[in-house]
């Protein structure tokens, strides 16, 4: 034996349903694999539903296949096109999601398009609430200081630390934390 560890390859079949959700085709024991790692949510009917960014990330990683029907499957480019038509900020969101997942964070849907993701401290998913909220900004798109301050205050009111993710034209991301400073006797 050469000391290699066998890694279980999870490839599950998903489809895009009538409401445009990415759902598991057949319930299986693999549902727990996704949920334990912070992917997807189980809806009220018991079906595992992935967000578009989760679906594309897992597709790119080779963990899922998204069926068109009759044995045919979507390509990466087709999924990007479908999801981008629904959300003009999809690619920006996917780039941030993929980067944070590669850094081994659990990333869940946020509260709005401006408070895009909840970010869990490593090792705390399922045990503690998200510590951070990601505020995405695309280079070249305007955002006023007042709007940014409002978003930061909203994060603080939820006891979350705001993380500002700036995505440049080459899809490179710079993260900033926003902290409050009180100047006294100035």
TrEMBL record:
Name of the protein this chain belongs to: tRNA-intron lyase
Keyword Lyase (UniProt): yes
Matches recorded under NCBIfam families: endA (TIGR00324)
Domain tRNA intron endonuclease catalytic: 90-175
Domain tRNA intron endonuclease N-terminal, residue spans: 19-80
EC number: 4.6.1.16
Uppermost EC category: lyase
Molecular function terms from GO: nucleic acid binding; tRNA-intron lyase activity
Coiled-coil region list: none
Cross-referenced InterPro entries: tRNA_endonuc-like_dom_sf (IPR011856), tRNA_intron_Endo_cat-like_sf (IPR036167), tRNA_intron_Endonuc_cat-like (IPR006677), tRNA_intron_Endonuc_N (IPR006678), tRNA_intron_Endonuc_N_sf (IPR036740), tRNA_splic (IPR006676)
Pfam families noted in UniProt: tRNA_int_endo (PF01974), tRNA_int_endo_N (PF02778)
GO CC terms of this entry: cytoplasm
Annotated gene: endA
Keyword terms: Lyase
GO biological process: tRNA splicing, via endonucleolytic cleavage and ligation
Organism field: Caldiarchaeum subterraneum
Keyword Lyase part of the UniProt annotation: yes
Stored PANTHER family: TRNA-SPLICING ENDONUCLEASE SUBUNIT SEN2 (PTHR21227:SF0)
SUPFAM superfamilies in UniProt: tRNA-intron endonuclease catalytic domain-like, tRNA-intron endonuclease N-terminal domain-like
């Amino acid at each position: 034996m050469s000391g290699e560890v066998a890694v279980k390859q999870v490839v599950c079949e998903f489809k895009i349903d009538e409401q445009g959700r990415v759902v598991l085709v057949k319930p299986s024991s693999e549902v727990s694999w996704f949920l334990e790692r912070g992917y997807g949510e189980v809806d009220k009917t018991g079906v595992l539903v992935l967000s578009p960014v989760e679906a594309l990330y897992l597709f790119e990683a080779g963990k899922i296949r998204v069926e068109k029907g009759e044995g045919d499957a979507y390509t990466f480019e087709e999924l990007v096109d479908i999801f981008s038509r629904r959300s003009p900020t999809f690619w920006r969101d996917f780039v941030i999601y993929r980067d944070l997942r590669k850094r081994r964070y659990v990333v869940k849907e946020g509260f709005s398009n401006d408070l895009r993701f909840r970010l869990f401290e490593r090792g705390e998913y399922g045990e503690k609430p998200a510590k951070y909220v990601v505020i995405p900004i695309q280079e070249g798109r305007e955002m006023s200081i007042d709007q940014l301050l409002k978003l930061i205050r909203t994060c603080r009111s939820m006891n979350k630390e705001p993380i500002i993710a700036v995505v440049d034209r080459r899809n490179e991301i710079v993260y900033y934390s926003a902290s409050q400073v009180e100047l006294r006797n100035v």
